[in-house]
Amino acid sequence: MTTATTAAAESLYQGKTYVKEITDRNFDKLVHNSRYPVVVEFYAPWCGHCKSLAPIYKRAAQKARSYAKFYAVNCDEDINKSLCGKYGVKGFPTVKGFFVPKDGSLGNKTPVDYNGPREIPQLLEFSESRLRYSAVALKPESIDDLISQFDTKFEQNDSDAQKRSVAVLFTNKNKIPNMWKGISNGSYGKINLGVVSASKYESLAKDDLGLTEFPSIVVFKANTDGSYSKDNVSRFADEFSYDNIVAFMRTHFVGTKSADEPSNKSSENVKNSEEKKETSQEKKKQEKPKTRKEEL
Predict the structure, then answer these.
(1) What local confidence, expressed as pLDDT, does residue 263 receive?
(2) CA separation (Å) from 237 to 194, 283, 290?
(3) Ramachandran region of residue 261, left (φ > 0), alpha (ψ -120 to 50) or beta?
(4) Above 50 in pLDDT, residue 94?
(5) pTM over 0.90
(6) Distance, C-alpha 257 to centroid of its chain
(7) Please, are residues 71 and 34 in contact by the beta-carbon 8 Å criterion?
(8) Is 71 within 8 Å of 41 (Cβ atoms)?
(9) What distances in angstroms separate CA 292 from CA 166, 237, 245, one per listed residue?
(10) How far apart are CA 292 and CA 296, in angstroms?
């Protein structure tokens, strides 16, 4: 008989990994009350297919870390048996997605079965297939027009003193990048995120804001009277990485910390640990990893 202690020791996701082990105790908080797309693997540590999936699942979690959460539930743990039964787990591994519905409500996401190939590209496609976000595409004809859209395109706090800053990403991408979508979810209610096409509105970006390369991030800070101006801004000037961007954004948050707020702790040791575990054959199959700047 496998005890809970033994099962925990045999966990496939202990140590340095972007996959978080969760249990019946924190499942609702981390899955149903999260604004992120959440992928959950229900597994058993003795399962051969689960062991084969583990390195793939870890790499997918690493690649999606800026916009989705990858969790794992050990169904051999006594505390998780009722949870695995609740979600109809009859074989291992079972992978399900939990996505925010169209109305944006949280608390009771409908699980979606994943029946695709157990490969990184397909898992990533699944994780972003229903990615909802609060970042807004802006189409300003001038700097004044851009600022005027802050009050019409975004939700705001009632108090001018607590009015949210607006972080604007100027990018050459044709659509809102997944990383920016993810940051908007983790920063929901703390700061508003917008996106402007740098190629289409190049004059505004270069002449009015003095931007010389893209992507660039500019935060428009609210004045004491609740207004905005191009003279009260903060430009992101650090090396482009998810951790650095999150750290920069947090300096402009308003309100209290939420459970879904992204962490700005450095995770390079996790990344290096995961990459070392790849075989040379796996590396050949994968594309050259994108830098964070290329993702925006």
Answers:
(1) 56
(2) 18, 32, 20
(3) beta
(4) yes
(5) no
(6) 17
(7) no
(8) yes
(9) 21, 14, 10
(10) 7
Please count the other Cβ atoms lying within 10 Å of the Cβ belonging to residue 162: 12
Distance CA 270, CA 261 (A): 20
3-state secondary structure the chain: CCCHHHHHHCCCCCCCCCCEECCCCCHHHHHHCCCCCEEEEEECCCCHHHHHHHHHHHHHHHHCCCCCEEEEEECCCHHHHHHHHHCCCCCCCEEEEECCCCCCCCCCCCEEECCCCCCHHHHHHHHHCCCCCCCEEECCCCHHHHHHHHHHHCCCCCCHHHCCCEEEEEECCCCCCHHHHHHHHHCCCCCEEEEEECCCCHHHHHHHCCCCCCCEEEEECCCCCCCCCCCCEEECCCCCCHHHHHHHHHCCCCCCCCCCCCCCCCCHHHHHHHHHCCCHHHHHHCCCCCCHHHHC
Q: What are phi and psi of 166, to 5 degrees?
A: -120, 120
Place of tokens 């082990």: 21
Domains, in order of start, for the chain? 19-129 (3.40.30.10), 136-251 (3.40.30.10)
Mean of pLDDT values over 146-156: 90
Please give the single-letter amino acid code of residue 276.
K
How far, in Å, CA of 146 to CA of 138, rounded?
7
Which residue matches tokens 């009771």? Answer: 108
Mean pLDDT over 211-229 rounds to 94
Q: Identify whether the C-beta of residue 267 lies closer than 8 Å to the C-beta of residue 101.
A: no
**Per-residue pLDDT tens digits for 258-267:** 556 665 444 4
The neighbour count for residue 273, using CB atoms within 10 Å, is 15
